Amino acid sequence: MGSLTAVRILDSSSPGRLDRRRRLLSDVLLWAVVAAPVGYAGFSPPYAPYAVPLVVGKLVMLGAAVVASRRQPLLAPVLVVLGSVVDGNFAFAIPVFSYLAGRRTASVGPAAGVFVLIVGGGTALNLGLLGTGAATWFLLASVLLFAAVFPWLVGRYRRQQQELADAGRRHVEASTREQRGAAERIRLRERARIAGEMHDSLGHDLSLIALRAAALEVAADLDDRHRAAAGELRASVSAATERLHEIIGVLREEGGASVRPSGETVAELVEGAREAGMAVRMEAAPGAAELPAMTGHAAHRIVREALTNAARYAPGAPVEVSVTRVGDRVEVAVVNDAPPAGPLPAPPSQGSGLLALAERVRLAGGTLHAGPRTDGGFALRAALPVTGPVETAAGTGLAAPSDAAQPDAVVEPDPSERPVDAERRLHDARRRVRRSLLVALVAPVGFALVLSLVYYPVATAGTVLDRATFDQMRLGTARSELAGLPRRQLERPTTADRDGCEYYTDGNFPLAQPTWRLCFTDGRLASKEWIA
Asked: Where are the transmembrane segments (predicted)?
């Protein structure tokens, strides 16, 4: 027993170890992917002084970002953004860790704070300390937008898709539990009703036995030995009656007594339906009326339920009832045609009557099949044992069919997982997914527009040269005499191949790119050009 327990403990812990190994492997692969650009650039010639320690430090920093992406997902993008200050190859890791941060972070507030901190710090560093131009700042801000913010939005959308899938699965599970619980409650009510019927019938029989034993006990022509035996019999029967009352009587539900008239047969039930106006035809085998009590009750209940459903859902349709005996089984069939004028208006059926009927047939040791026919009618067929249910090892006298081998248990849904709660959670998850998708599509456009609105005034302030002023400029004019010349120049393009030239823009939105080039020689305008 001890070894078996140890094996179970090892088996239960192995999934956790397997998950840890998978996470470790995925982290190693992630580190290898993001470290490849940095390592390749660092170990490629020409080699700078202290190249190896510097590259090792960068790789360690990337390893720290990989570890942080599990426990502090928002710290990983900060680390790689800081690394991009000293090595531009860190930029390849920014979208990866930003996506993981969105995938692994539940709330939006901390992420927004981190991105604001990165933008503010990067702006102060580039414009204040490093003295980079507005164009370079705009480029870096755009990279941050599309390499960090957009992947984070995609990761968050994927996270909420997973939450939606989980909410859908929990909703299905809660609905399934609710349906199983409803079916189980119907089964239990039917079992309690059967128990009540058994209590009534057995209690009546036991009372008669006790009465006869009491009559024997007071008989004058009985000797003392037999009188004492009769008294013991009466006492045993009385005690058995009390135990029966305690064990089975508590299973009764209020109003759950059998509605079957005492001694009513299936033929009398069918005759009553005819008197009520139903077109019922019955075929019964000669020995079908002599059935065990539980089998007879089940047959009566089958016919009654089928006639009730036919009257409700197929008014005016002819109904055929047959009770035949085949070997040690009795087959009961109730078949009705399609209603001539269509079914009567009625609320949709929940199927509780058939569930209860199936439980009664199961307890009687039989099988039940019910379903619509191709011609629009309905058929209900059951096979019941003539000898009654086979006694089980527990001695209950109730035999379950092979498909009910599992122990009975009331599956009550968890109050926190009721279908209404699960459906509300599913609705919220769908709303969050729709909102995240909208934000993922709209936010980059909005951020780009905001960046443009911030960059454009800075880039164009004092650099706009209109075309009319450009056309009036004459070659050979001293620079100090040029009317309308802007007070500030644009940054010299990196592809410029001429010295002594100044660049201005016509105010094109949103990048304010260079439009005019004025070149001077000895302080005088030597050439003017429009830049395509």
From this structure: 24-43, 74-101, 108-129, 135-154, 437-458
Which of 457, 460, 471, 474 lies closest to 506 in space, CA to CA? Answer: 460
Closest by CA to 304, choosing from 263, 338, 259, is: 259
**Least confidently predicted of 12-26, 166-180, 248-262:** 248-262
Contact between 27 and 33 (Cβ < 8 Å): no
Note the pLDDT of residue 254. 41
Alpha helices of 461-520 — where are they, by DSSP H? 467-472
202: helix, strand or coil: helix
- Are 302 and 357 a contacting pair, CB within 8 Å? yes
Report which of 246, 245, 249, 238 is spatially closest to residue 194, judged by C-alpha positions.
249
Sorted by where each starts, the structural domains of the chain and their CATH numbers stand as 31-256 (no CATH), 266-340+352-385 (3.30.565.10), 467-530 (no CATH)
Task: List the alpha helices (DSSP H) in 364-402.
Answer: none
Q: Higher model confidence: residue 22 or residue 512?
A: 22
The C-alpha angle with vertex 15 and arms to 12 and 16, in degrees rounded to 5, equals 95
Quick one: pLDDT band at residue 320, thresholds 50, 70, 90?
very high
Which residues, 6+ apart, have CB-to-CB distance to 201 below 8 Å? 293
**The pLDDT of residue 208:** 64
